[in-house]
Amino acid sequence: MLSDEELITEIRSGSQAAMEMLVKRHYAMIFSYIYRKIGNHHTAYDLTQEVFIKMMQSLPSYQSHGKFEHWLLKIAVNHCLDYYRSKQYRNSHVQDELDETIPDAHSNVWDLFQLHDQQEQAKQAVLALPEHQRDAIILNYYHGLKIREIADVTGANESTIKSRIRAGISRLKKMLLGEEELRDGQEQRKQG
Amino acid sequence: MGKSRENKGKSVWVDDMDDVKDLEYFDSELESILQQYCVELPEEQRINTTIDVLRQYVPDISENPREVSMMSYWRRWINLWKIAAADIGMFSKLYWISCLILFGAGVWMGVTVQQMPAIVVILFSPLPFVIGLIEVFKGREQGVLEMELACKVSAQELMLSRLLFIVMNSLILNTCLSGLMFLVRGDISFWGLTWTWFTPFIIVASSSLWLAMRIRCTVSSMVTISIWMAVGMILLTRPDMLTRMMDLHILITILVNAVAVYLLFRQGWKLLRNHTFIAEGSLSYGANDSEYF
Q1: Nearest-by-CA chain B residue for A28
Q2: Per the CB < 8 Å rule, is B293 touching A32?
Q3: CATH 3.40.50.1100 fits A106-177, yes or no
Q4: 8 Å CB contact of B17 and A144
Q5: What is the CATH number of domain A4-92?
Q6: CA–CA gap between residue B149 and residue B175 (Å, rounded)
Q7: I want to staple B162 with a disulfide (CB 3.0 to 4.6 A). Which of A152, B15, B136, B154 is the partner?
Q8: Domain ranges of chain A
Q9: Under an 8 A CB cutoff, do B37 and A185 touch?
Q10: What are B158-187's pLDDT values in tens digits?
Q11: Phi, psi values for residue A9, rounded to 5°
């Protein structure tokens, strides 16, 4: 199997097949990162495409100092930041808020269903995290990046990343397990 | 989320957060909920749409000749030979048997025929190439080319390397045939005989490749062989025509050969450029997609 660097060399010499292989190799990683960050399937698809376009535009200047996938994740992280700052996001965000106020005939049933859907709970909890904490949690937990690697990808220092992860986990616990449960656990540990 | 991801996430937390780790921050119940958060990837068709959008960003070297250095040409040329060498095993037994039979028949007839031994080499010389064309195009026609492709070899390169191989194989067989006839008979010149078969060989080779690129190769090979056999019959029944052809002025012969060689190279180049299909299904992407679901 060819390495990412070998594929890049092939792409630079005009190989369409190498480009296809490189994109297919990393598509799942980039899409899942963006989806977990944004929470919308269609937007995640569009942003993933834009990330790969940026990747292709930046390949001529790419220098393999580290892992290629970290370089690619860095593009994705920055692109998501750009998206949050964009007019497109602000408009869609306002629209989402308006949509939430419209009563839904099936809302009770839907809410009930959602409550029991752990996946939806996890999704909403991750999405409810502040942007930087969300980044740190997604990259650390779902992508297996180490603190140093996250610091490199996001451009923050390691201690900041550690505190973001800690704060993120703390928030997730509050949202997913409930504060009371958390306190009970702490008390039990103290007693133990 | 797969088990591997579960372990990966946990180990990273435990290993990496050692200095900040506090039991308060680790909870298996939280982890079990987070593990439920799966991501459904877009359909394959939509991923392929993204890939199609990206195609325009792959540099087209053919449109940018300055970027192609002489070194890269050499590298491609050497690479083509390497592919041809690695691909010999993929040629069918029928091709090898046909070559052997033709060579054997050529030697036998060349040695036994008393008059006009040159006609034997003239008639036999293009046939291994024409039969070999079926091997070059069989992948395209039977749809097995994709299966044969490794990621570094494009379909075009594979066809071109096969073409290169059948040209070389034909040249070697014909030279051996001329050499054997020269050694056994002693009444003919080796270089004269080689020059005699080279012209019809290169003309038939270039025109049969031209034909094979336009109609189904098996059909075009049959057509070429039939036409060639008819020409052979005419030459056998009218030896004066052959004598007149062999007595052509050397400059005319060189000119005809040059045109035929040019046509052969041109067809080879077209083969590389025209068959721009992309092999699918055979590529090992090396991705463990489930890791991120």
Answers
A1: B289
A2: yes
A3: no
A4: no
A5: 1.10.1740.10
A6: 32
A7: B136
A8: 4-92, 106-177
A9: no
A10: 777 788 888 888 889 989 988 888 888 777
A11: -60, -40
